[in-house]
Amino acid sequence: MYITVLCKVVDNYGDIGVCWRMCRRLKKINPQNTISLVVDNLVSFNRICDSVDISATFQNVQGVDVYNWNNADVCYGQFVQNDGERLSVILECFQCGRPDWMEKILFEEKLNRTVQIIMIDYLTAEKYAEDFHCLKSLTRSAKVQKVNFMPGFTERTGGLIIDDEWEKLPEYNKDGPILQFIYNGKGAELLPEGKPLPYMNQTDWDKMMKNCSALIIRGEESMSRACLSGIPFIWQAYPQTEEYQLVKVKAVLERMRPHFDEGAFEIVEKAWLFVNVDCHNDMNDAAIQKFLDSRSTLVPSFQDFAKSLRKNGDLCSNLMTFINKIDIIDR
After folding, report:
1. Region of 71 on the Ramachandran plot (φ > 0 left; ψ -120 to 50 alpha; else beta)
2. Burial status of residue 29 (CB atoms within 10 A of its CB: 0-12, 13-18, 19 or more)
3. What phi, psi does 189 have (nearest 5°)?
4. In this predicted model, which residue has the larger pLDDT, 219 or 20?
5. Which helix (H) or strand (E) holds 77?
6. How far apart are CA 10 and CA 49, in angstroms?
7. 219 with 11: CB under 8 angstroms?
8. Using an 8 Å Cβ cutoff, are 150 and 319 in contact?
9. Strand bridging mode 178-180 / 189-191
10. What percent of the chain has pLDDT over 70?
11. Would you tell me which CATH number, out of the four given (2.60.40, 3.40.50, 2.40.10, 3.30.70), belongs to the domain 164-310?
């Protein structure tokens, strides 16, 4: 089976971080499948995977075929071959759209095969994730079918990516440092020393997170790992106009609430809301300090939340089950 993943690097390294984790997981699930990653920013990709050649139009990285989105001639020539077989299944991630050369193949080349476009949306705990999961939509051609596949926090969504390194809860290090990685900050740093962290590949970043006693993080990629870690964490959502980010923050908090007693949840909620209102980055605030001082007592509740997410299954395994089901129906 051929699966092509599309990624535009929009917000730092979060987009490519999720897509790269997804590609490696899909390849691990079935090594016989051909996984292609079409990405528009190889420089950013190189920051999280240093074996990536930023000058290459095509390369194979850890078993995944990587194409430069921006090299239209080469990509068109590769993907139009054999009735567009590499486009049998397209994972369009985070509303990134499709390159013009791919649109030409899909809608002008009169392919005989049916193409499945699966829209992988941003992770959210909002109710619409369940409502939109596996919901179909129309395209310009009956041969090109499109459906939504929603990451999420419940069994009625696709779940989170649970790669091998995250199948089990890491052992909690109560004496570990605190990771701070927030918007309007100085980049990632370890507290209390305030030691700035260099750019890390994804594997090393995961190991570093697991060794921390608390996490104050931003973005989807780090947040999803924090959720699975069982380590007490505060998530800062991307700031939006009229503080709309609070909708997303409160939705995650409500998914977490059943795993905490009232007093513990109040500590978590106050810290989360402080960090997410007016882009606060004052880590000396009383709400943040109360959270950090209580982190060891909060561990069981965060671990219980993490265990509940694993019960929803791995997003990529759920995705492959869905793809195989579509494949059977289309035969």
Report:
1. beta
2. middle
3. -150, 160
4. 20
5. helix 72-79
6. 17
7. yes
8. no
9. antiparallel
10. 96
11. 3.40.50
